Amino acid sequence: MKKILIVEGNLREENQSFTDGGIKTHTESLKDSISYFTEDIEIDVVNPSSDSNISDVSNNLNKYDGMIWGGSSLNIYNDTPEIRRQLDFMKKCQNNIKNILAICWGMQVAVTVAGGEVKRCQKGAHRGIAHDIEINEEGLKHKIYKNKNKIFNTPAFNFDEVVTLPVNSTLLASNPINKVMGVSFKAGISNIWGIQYHPEISYEKMISLIHFRTERLLNNKAFEDQHEIDSHVKIIENEKKVSELNSRMRELENWLKFIGLKINV
Question: So what's the pLDDT on residue 265?
């Protein structure tokens, strides 16, 4: 049986607020999405920002067939002890795990550790949805985008972006907001597939997150007022009506196949 590690990027306090608000954590959403494709897999979960046994996990990373590092509300350029612990753990993972799927925050951590740079988005933000992601010629040849439409919309929530890629990276996909929406690179012994969006999270959850974070989103000027929020949610609701589940989660499916799992759907 294949064994993977899921890394939770959010702080324990943020996850508790999700739970209190009736929203699944990103790890819970990811496990649900994996179970859609297969249950013939063993999953461990670690939170490098808060777990007291992180050194024990670090010493046994080579037992995993792959790792998925998910999203977070953190900003990589903030120099906090919790972020430094995540960067340190990612470095250990890159030296011990051959296959890494780095999603959103996970991609930003992986890129930073490998010598790239992340900054605040200059052209806006993805607030629950990313439009018009276009797979380039390199991306069309890459396994992460097998059977994926060349241009697509997807769940996404990010205010930061990769501005400098690690050496020898291959850019796979872009959109008008972020140049780096999909990337592939090697670091240590790891083959890293990075995406700046969330195929594993439903549009329903993205809408819930917008309502959950309304005060925060208004305070940081992500939206001007409640009317703009309501109009934006309608855009996501319309996309949800035409979105097809297998197509939305194609990147996750392709990665699971890449590490040798048999998919049930």
Answer: 76
